[in-house]
Structure formats: C-alpha cells, structure tokens
TrEMBL record, chains A, B:
InterPro entries the record matches: dsRBD_dom, RNase_III, RNase_III_dom, RNase_III_sf
Family, similarity comment: Belongs to the ribonuclease III family.
Protein name (record): Ribonuclease 3
Gene symbol of the encoding locus: rnc
Subunit details: Homodimer.
Length: 219, 219
C-alpha cells in the first residue's frame, strides 16, 4: 500500500527518501518539517477523539502514536524501505530496514506532500494513516494515579510517593504544589500545581507515567 | 494590538484565556493543540526562510522563537494579560503577569483560532505574528563548531572535545560516528554520524549547542 497521494513534483517525493548517507541534499530538513506537521495533525485528531483527556493524557497518547517504532511500522506498510536512496555504507549494513531511517523517511514524505500539495493534502494523508490507530487507543477511564500505580505494580516496582511541596493563596483559593516521585526502575519526579491537591497529584502522576512509558519504549 | 482574527464563536476565545486555577473547563487542552500548531507553522516559516540551514539549525532557530519567554512577550503585545480569567489565588499573586500563564494562553488562543476558523486562519495569524521575528533571526554563516566554540569562550568555559567513536563501511563509503562533549557549565554530549567526519562533528556540535542555549534560557 503506497502513500495515497499523487505528487505533482516527483523530485520532492524522491528527496524525502534520500538518506543523509548519500550526501547533500538529503531528507533531513524535510524530516524536521514533517515531524512538526505530523505532531500538529495528530494533536488535532486526539483533541477531537478524546474530549475529556487532560493535556498530559493527550501528550502521552501522542507519544504512543508518534515514536520511532510506530512510524517505522507505518513506513514499512507504505513500502518506503525499497524506495529509499542510501549511501553505499548504509546500503550494505541494511539501512533500509532500520527503524530510525524508515521513520525519518516517513516524516520527510509528509513534508513532501505538504510542499507539493499544501496543508490540507498533508492533513488528509495523516488522517488516513492514523485514523484507525487513533480509534484503537484505549479510552482511559482510569485516572493517572491509578494508571501509574498499575504500571509500577505490573513491572514489579515500588509505588510512587506524593508530597505537598507548598501551598499558597487564601483559604478559599489555595494553590497546591505537589511532587510525584518514583524510585524504580529509575528515579523520576515531576511537579504540578493546581487549585485542588488531588488534581495536582494526578497531573504530576501523568508526567511521571509519560516518562516511564517513553523510557520503556526506548529500551 | 489585539489578535488579528475575528472569532465566530467568542466562547472559544474566552476558553483559551481561562487558566486552570479557575477549575474545569480551562485552556490546558487547547494549549496542547496550539503548541503543536505553532510548532508546525513556525517550522514551515523557518524551512522557507533558511533554505541552507541544517535540521539541527532549524530546531535551534525554532527554540529561539518558540519558548516561554518569547511567547509571553507576544502575549503581552496582544494584551492577553488583562483578558485572562484566573482563579482568585492566581489573581492575587499576579498570575496575569506570569510568563508561563501568558505563553500558555497565547498557545491556547492559536488553537481557538484553528477551532473557530480552520488551519489556514491559524496559519495566517502565526505568519503575521512571527514574520518579523523570523526575518530578524541571524542568518548564520558560521558553522556549528565555530558557534559552539564562541559560545563556550564567551561564557568562560572549556572548549569541546570531539572523538571518533567508530567508523564502518568500505573505504569509499565510510560512515563516521563521532561524539562532541562539553564539560562546562555542565556535562553535555551528543553523537552524530555521517559519511563525512567533519560534517558529523558539525551535527554533534549543533545538538550540544542547542542544549546549552536551551539550558541558558531556562535558568
């Protein structure tokens, strides 16, 4: 299943698949642009699909959809590997199979669609490719503290600590600064503030959970 | 100078200026979306304006334009501070002057424009607000190693170390893996690869420089 977009300028499509091992020009600048566009369009989809998700939850969901491994998987479905232009070194060492090279080529291809056909064309391509994936995300009904606890328990780690660092403002309108810390598999801590201590703890837990899951994905 | 966009749905504009200290709903979800849109449109502007900049340079330039302090400055020009809805605690402690609250409200306002008027409307607002700023960026003619060296010297720090970690591939098509390390003001190191050792060093230097300048901005 190749990319569902017909390029007016095939040279743009080709440049998007040109790895830096070839020399210059290559797809690195396009990857910068494609990464930004992809982030925006996926943010839009998540904003629509998860009207109750907090900012932290939206970030976490996006990181689940937009990461090297997930993008490489899409690149493979689009059969970008065979279309890559690699320098002789990467060619020999099987660069066309490498997640990072595939993910970069996919992002650069999105930039190519944008440069060739405009914002709306790029958005449509992203929506088609990610629609099912966004739909398949778990609609989390569990709050962040619960999810963090379950994640830690599921991995055999100690439970998180929550501390109140500070509170300020008058009694009827206090702001609470809290910290959530986990000690395993590695120390992570995050701070959050809110008019409600429990909500601030949820926000801090969401950040810590996002770091833990990001780390778990990268190892 | 208020935002140059006329909302069909003024409730969206109002929600974008509602801080979480008020409770829910507030502008946090919109900030997530606005941040992503802003990143994409500024990426586009930089891609156009700096056709020779590397990916690392584009990232660095974007971080110069899109950071809490810079966005708060724009929010002040747009007079968002007076229009904010804050909870009583933040109101008392002068939250309408805080950079982070202003920057978030600005990003959320961009999301409101998008939700109200679509992608193109949001893009136009970003282009108007950032056009001059993008134009004013130094067109760096110095390479990253030179800029890193100058930054370190300018701050009285030791010079960076470059090491060749590995090289692979055949003689006529080698890939070089290099590392750039600085020891002051804090240890930072970055790795980069390329078919040309000097270029890989430039790329690694660009990453280290981006980290140093990001850190300097945040302290």
């Amino acid at each position: 299943m190749p990319l569902n977009y017909r390029f007016r300028d095939p040279a743009l499509a080709a440049l998007a698949l040109t790895h830096r091992s070839v020399g210059k020009p290559n797809n690195e600048r396009m990857e910068f642009l494609g990464d930004a566009l992809l982030g925006a369009f996926v943010a839009e989809m998540l904003y629509e699909a998860h009207p109750k998700a907090s900012e932290g939850e939206l970030s976490r969901l996006r990181a689940q959809l937009v990461n090297g491994q997930a993008l490489a998987e899409i690149a493979r479905k689009l059969e970008l590997g065979n279309a890559l232009t690699l320098g002789p070194g990467e060619l020999k060492s099987g660069g066309f199979r490498r997640d990072s090279i595939l993910a970069d080529a996919f992002e650069a291809s999105l930039a190519a669609v944008f440069l060739d056909g405009g914002l709306e064309a790029c958005r449509q391509v992203v929506r088609e490719l990610f629609g099912e994936r966004v739909g398949a995300l778990p609609r989390s009904s569990k709050d962040a503290k619960t999810r963090l606890q379950e994640w830690l328990q599921g991995h055999g780690h100690a439970l998180p600590q929550y501390e109140l660092i500070d509170s300020h403002g008058e009694d009827h309108a206090k702001t609470f600064d809290v910290r959530c810390t986990v000690s395993e598999p590695q120390v992570h801590s995050a701070e959050a503030s809110g008019s409600n201590r429990r909500q601030a703890e949820q926000d801090a837990a969401e950040i810590v959970l996002a770091r833990l899951t990001a780390q778990a994905r990268n190892t």
